[in-house]
Design brief:
- By secondary structure, this protein is of the alpha+beta class.
- 30% of the residues lie in helices and 23% in strands.
- Helix 8 runs antiparallel to helix 10.
- Among the domains are: 111 residues, Uridine Diphospho-n-acetylenolpyruvylglucosamine Reductase, domain 3, CATH 3.30.465.10; 176 residues, FAD-linked oxidase, cap domain/gating helix (Vanillyl-alcohol Oxidase, Chain A, domain 3), CATH 3.40.462.
- The strands form 3 sheets. An 8-stranded antiparallel β-sheet has the order 14-11-13-12-16-17-15-18, sandwiched between helices. Strands 5, 6, 7, 8, 9 and 10 form a 6-stranded antiparallel β-sheet that branches.
């Protein structure tokens, strides 16, 4: 589809000249994300380059654009920084890419929360909050991600040991705009938010969010070498009970941690890293030693590096070291209890785990099983083998919202906020 000059002019009238982009090379860039990390998504998720990109600077402009799209029956694919690994920002139908990166307001910083517009990056949010001696409760490992991008496609992150997942209360409220005849911003809170969180924008465009904050803390990173995964995760669980919970804990096979950590004294078949409040470092050293670990460093300068080498950033770093690697997401006690069989489910398997305490699963570890990609059949067979062992598995090689739960809620929200199915079409599970 080619957007006519008249349509481009109409959109320009809604958002201003800087907010409309029609150059093919820019539209190509804005029609991609990090879904190339998946062999299946890079093969099967065929991007349809957007016809036009529109960048509203205010929530009322978002409403104007969505009303325009509704009347003209134009598909709308929302986009933040484009860091999604799952095709969240990839158009599957021609139309509008709604670029939210000009929505950058940060306001109403109170004792324990902040109001943030959709396009604010977590890096800039952390910088602003630091001036108030606060930090965001939970953030993704990709700190250049936008707030609405993470809320629309993420789940857990740095801070989830203390605050849980996006469904556990640290998201206090949302402002959502639907693709309807006369769109108006709608303020949503409580359980009603579930139909809009992790929905890829298929149930309305998040333009603002109120997020929980926490006291800004001085942090350090403890490194500890272990001989076994079981010993490392046992130590990690005990560290989660420190008076100030770690902001992040990661447990990595040597074949994983060697892709992003210089040896510099680190060793062991398994390496545990814990991002700690500095006041808990010595207690953490004691806990780690008692669990069979050998502390190889306590390093204040490693905080930034750890921030970008946990959660799914581990997939990115591993893939850069070996492009043949792909991942499935794993959770549960069975990962450790049946470790040998878990590793046998995929060829050349290696494990990365992150500590979390979400409401629905409780305290424990979730993470990635990275392995050399073979084919679709090997993936299907491996997932089945893991589930037979009692491992909770999420298949990241799909672009379908609702494939991992919550489908009824998403459909109900979409019926109200997107009656013509124009928001990120092709993403909501049929």
């Amino acid at each position: 589809m080619t957007v006519s000059a008249d349509l481009a002019d109409e959109l320009t009238a809604l958002v201003g000249r800087p907010g409309v982009e029609t150059r093919p090379e820019v539209l190509h860039r804005l029609s991609r994300d990090f879904s190339w990390l998946s062999p299946i998504l890079s093969r099967d998720l065929r991007s349809v380059p957007a016809s036009v990109a529109v960048s509203p600077a205010r929530t009322d402009q978002v409403a104007d654009v969505l009303g325009f799209a509704y009347r003209r029956r134009l598909a709308v694919t929302p986009r933040g920084a484009g860091t999604s690994n799952y095709g969240q920002s990839v158009p599957m139908a021609p139309g509008i890419v709604l670029d939210t990166t000009r929505l950058t307001g940060i306001s109403d910083i109170d004792a324990d929360s902040v109001v943030v517009e959709a396009g604010v990056t977590f890096a800039s949010l952390e910088q602003t909050l630091a001036e108030h001696s606060r930090e965001v409760a939970v953030m993704p490992s990709t700190v250049t991600s936008t707030v609405a991008g993470f809320l629309s496609g993420g789940n857990q992150g740095i801070g989830s040991i203390e605050f849980g997942s996006i469904w556990d209360g640290w998201v206090r409220g949302l402002t959502v705009v639907g693709c309807v005849e006369n769109p108006e911003p709608v303020d949503i809170n409580g359980d009603s938010m579930d139909g809009h969180l992790h929905a890829y924008g298929t149930t309305g465009i998040i333009t603002r969010a109120r997020l929980c904050t926490a006291p800004k803390r001085d942090r350090t990173v403890l490194f500890a070498a272990f001989d076994t995964l079981a010993a490392a995760t046992r130590a990690g669980r005990e560290l989660m009970d420190l008076p100030v919970p770690p902001r992040a804990i990661s447990v990595d096979d040597r074949a994983v941690w060697e892709t992003f950590i210089a040896h510099d004294g680190h060793d062991g078949a398994v390496l545990l890293r814990a991002m700690l409040d500095v006041g808990t470092a010595e207690a953490a050293r004691t806990i780690t030693g008692a669990a069979g670990g050998r502390v190889t460093a306590i390093d204040d300068t490693a905080v930034r590096a750890m921030t970008s080498s946990v959660y799914n950033h581990s997939t990115l770093r591993a893939h850069r070291s070996d492009p043949r690697l792909a991942a499935v997401q794993i959770r549960g006690e069975a990962v450790v209890e049946h470790e040998k069989a878990v590793r046998a489910a995929f060829p050349d398997a290696r494990i990365h785990l992150d500590g979390n305490a979400p409401r629905r699963y409780g305290k424990g570890f979730s993470g990635l099983l990275l392995s050399t990609w073979v084919d679709d059949e090997t993936l299907t067979r491996g997932i089945a083998a893991l589930r037979a062992l009692g491992v909770m598995v999420v298949n990241p090689h799909t672009w379908l919202v609702g494939s991992h739960g919550g489908l009824d809620g998403y459909r109900a929200a979409a019926a109200t906020f997107d009656p013509r199915g124009l928001l990120n079409p092709g993403k909501l599970m049929p």
